[in-house]
Amino acid sequence: MCIIAAKSLGTDWPTIDIVNNCCENNPDGFSIAWNENGELKTFRSMDKAEFLARYHTISHTVDPNTSAAIIHARWATHGSKKLENCHCWIGGGLAFAHNGVLTNIPNKDDMTDSETFFRDYFLPVYETLGWERAKLIASAIVGTSRFAWLDVAGNIYMMGKWEKCQDQGRKGKLYFSNSGYLYCNNKKLNSNALFSMSQGVRSCQAYGTMSAKRTNTEKFNDYGALYINRTGK
Fold first, then answer.
1. DSSP H or E segment with residue 55
2. Domain tally for the chain?
3. Residue 201 placed within a domain
4. Cα Rg of the chain (Å, integer)
5. 15-19, 45-49, 138-142, 197-201: lowest mean pLDDT where?
6. Per the domain annotation, does 233 fall within a domain?
């Protein structure tokens, strides 16, 4: 099934408990992509302890106000269990992650269906014709899956149905591609652990799906995708 967490600019990093839940429930490879100092950076690992240690460092040293991120934990369906098949691939100035199964995309060799879509279907259109045309390709293929892209400026583009975890009273939003972040070994995570706050712990509310309501920080296009504005305006 996999799971993706999408952290917008100005949103605090998810707690280590949340990330651990994601990894426990999806143990076949772990990755994070984030923007920092004008670059896209990634870290991937097949080892949960190594990944959590690196995530702890990132979340305590990288400013959440200037860096957005997508975090992915994999449940293997297409492609073998190896580092190269961990998500958050980079191409065309974008990092990409996928949750779901693309039944209309035959995976290439030992590549995942996700990477096959990104490299062979999405990128050729995006790099020649731009986002608007590439978005049409993605919307025709996404089905019941969830897609997430991150660019070097910290813009996050998402497609599909997502769960929104919003910290009341603080700008910025955190989205998950399913509810797997809430549970580990059938135990539900306490809501007070959902955010790591520099000024105390604030609670968080999870919603079943994305609403089509427009706000000053969200813009929906005509194809079911959500664009989180870099400036929050």
1. helix 48-61
2. 1
3. yes
4. 16
5. 197-201
6. no
Give the CATH number of the domain where residue 102 resides: 3.60.20.10
Tokens standing for 169? 């009273």
Residue with token string 């997508």 = 70
> Closest Cα partner for 161 from 176, 182, 141, 180?
176
Buried b (16+ CB within 10 A) or exposed e, 32-70: bbbbbeeebbbbbbbebeebbebbeebbeebebeebbbb
Structural domain boundaries enclosing 36: 3-228
- In-domain check, residue 82: yes
Question: Is the residue at 107 inside a domain?
Answer: yes
* Chain centroid offset of residue 84 CA: 18
Phi, psi of 80 (to 5 degrees): -75, 170
Residue 208's identity, in one-letter code, is G
Q: Could you read off the pLDDT of 65-87 as tens digits, one per residue?
A: 999 999 999 877 776 677 888 98
User: What does residue 218 show for φ and ψ, rounded to 5 degrees?
Assistant: -130, 140
For the full predicted model, state whether its pTM sits above 0.70: yes
